[in-house]
Specification:
Chain lengths: 307, 307, 307
Amino acid sequence: MLTGRDILTTKQFSIKELDLILKTATRFEQALKEKRVLNNLDGCIVASLFFEASTRTRLSFEAAALRLSGRVISMPEAAVSSLAKGESIADTAKTVDGYADVIVIRHAQKGSAQTAADYAAHPVINGGDGSGQHPTQALLDLYTIFKETGDVSGLTITLLGDLKNGRTVHSLSYLMAKYGNRMIFASPSSLAMPAEITAELKSLGGDVSETSDVDEALAESDIVYVTRIQRERFEDPAEYERLKGSYVIDMKTVARAKKGIKILHPLPRVDEIATEVDAYEGATYFRQAHNSIPTRMALLALVTGRA
Amino acid sequence: MLTGRDILTTKQFSIKELDLILKTATRFEQALKEKRVLNNLDGCIVASLFFEASTRTRLSFEAAALRLSGRVISMPEAAVSSLAKGESIADTAKTVDGYADVIVIRHAQKGSAQTAADYAAHPVINGGDGSGQHPTQALLDLYTIFKETGDVSGLTITLLGDLKNGRTVHSLSYLMAKYGNRMIFASPSSLAMPAEITAELKSLGGDVSETSDVDEALAESDIVYVTRIQRERFEDPAEYERLKGSYVIDMKTVARAKKGIKILHPLPRVDEIATEVDAYEGATYFRQAHNSIPTRMALLALVTGRA
Amino acid sequence: MLTGRDILTTKQFSIKELDLILKTATRFEQALKEKRVLNNLDGCIVASLFFEASTRTRLSFEAAALRLSGRVISMPEAAVSSLAKGESIADTAKTVDGYADVIVIRHAQKGSAQTAADYAAHPVINGGDGSGQHPTQALLDLYTIFKETGDVSGLTITLLGDLKNGRTVHSLSYLMAKYGNRMIFASPSSLAMPAEITAELKSLGGDVSETSDVDEALAESDIVYVTRIQRERFEDPAEYERLKGSYVIDMKTVARAKKGIKILHPLPRVDEIATEVDAYEGATYFRQAHNSIPTRMALLALVTGRA
């Protein structure tokens, strides 16, 4: 169903395709637990092109490829200069298309993954395109929600923090809308979800509301998805100082929230979740990080037709 | 015939050795097309040491090694500082010689690959040594010419652009001379082929002429090998502005050239070939880039005695 | 005996464990000589996280993993920024713990490897933690001493050069003390072995003396372990100029030393050993560098329970 397809945005998937991804990830995770050596990508080369900093996403994709016995050629973001040196993304894609069977690309330019996909014959997976999308993060978030709650619909989820600049929450919100979940956007007003995304979600039938009252939101939520608020996003430093505390999750916040609330975070976490929360059973963010492996294994295997 | 040998310069090869490389590359390309998993380098480690920027060459060598089931340890150019930190190339070569079965090295210093080869017991392949040679690029160019024209001799080839600084055209010209092809050097006079290379080519029996009339050259050429003219190579910016247009290939240039002319370029291409040319049947540069894989597979397999 | 264990410091090992490491390294080196393909780490992923410059150690660990058919995800020091970006070592360790079966970490912060080990369930190997320890270098030094002298005890060893800042000599001195060897510390007084280490070695029963007379020390030594004296370690440049000559090993030094003295050096060597010494039979430093492969293979195989 996904063989030969590119993974560019979460908007592209049907429920049936999403279910297939979840099912495949579940199967691979089981195999990993049983320490079975998988050979799905035997003889396949995965090109891992990171034009923008993301060691975490890069290592996770590469580990996923290797877990399936794939082989990896890797361009860490620091080595970018040479390949990027004045060359268009189209030319880079056409060249690397001859080296590899599937291309994972992260690039600061919005739309870059789409361009690469337009020019490469092999499947292209978007590892984050600037302020655009980060679909594989959202899919591992979905897989995490599925595993942690046993369901993907009928949920209330608060997206918390910097909703303006976070491509992760943008990508995830489309998936949540697709499954008919209720979404609460809790952010400082200057970092609210972009109006065009909110409008698009509503047009897709999304149940969306906005608030700046974090406690109220969490009191009704099965899940809170935390993102970091970066000081440099504020024009007025005083506003940052005034607001940042409200968006920090600690055990007091958890105590006021709906019982059993699951806390997700795409990581890296700096201080927006207190380390005391790590011991809380609903703190899923490290399990979530580990879910990147079976999820990305599923995507690599599905697009190459080897699941 | 090449087992245990270093690949340092295109001058080193006999016609018989070149034929073996072409034949081996052809065989590997066929295997790739049939999606056969090759195990020639099973258990071998290839060290990929890039002291100078060249993600493209690095990724291509690593993909070639992996296609043969080799294993790769990689130093991207950005990680150079530590290994290079005051250490001689000789010491680096002696050290890495204990880690790997074959060493690919790119280094800004002319003669660096020769030095590495002098000190390493395992085969060393020159991935570009400053203004010196880039023999594996020239060999994949040769393989491209062979595939695109069905022959390696009896051809007229124009080398176009910056012939002074381009190690790629230096390396290629020796191969062309060896096969008795006619060469036309078309460049601004300040970027002409170095006199000592022209002299050496002639002493080897090379049929060489020079011109600054691009159209005239292309009207007689089966092949044009385009290189980029970099602004910073000119002392006088006005001269750059005056000349650059003459060395840009677009469909008008193609219309004036010999019918069926094949256009090669080592890439990355910036604006010296208009993108409209990409659709032209004789535009071989992306196929040429892909030819790097079977050619470098052939070299790795031949020097390790596993072809 | 070492299955599931972390490798953090040379202080942690019993003689029995050290013997097992030496025996395992010997066995792997024999297999490498016979060009046998080993599959001990088949299906295992080794994470190679280098937050601090050390291409040599990184490539050697990765080659060791690959020699055992392990798979490698690699973060060269140059790619650090993203992973490190404000994230704690604890969080990084917990995340990567889900990607890999064993983690090799180098980080400028003393105690970093211990922290990683505290938070990761999989074994952590310290690849150098700032001014702390570099246990795997000391273990390959020990393996070198064992191979070159046929013994690990009953020896006199001079540690030469900058003993203050060299974590390599710190790590090695504990191993030498454990085996009851006699140690002579020969350094400029401003770069002497830290008093707390000397005291600890003595409390462990170490036979330790200090001198600034290099010739006298070498006249009694079976082994000299040379480290580099860096100009920037001196407050007074004149002192550096006055002293540096005394700590350079050339063939005149060798002539005055005990007959058959073995010269070790962790590399890279700059000018503290003259290249004329390379031809001397007792110059072991390149063989020592190559011993990193079987030693690190042994460590990776032992901690994963696959030796």
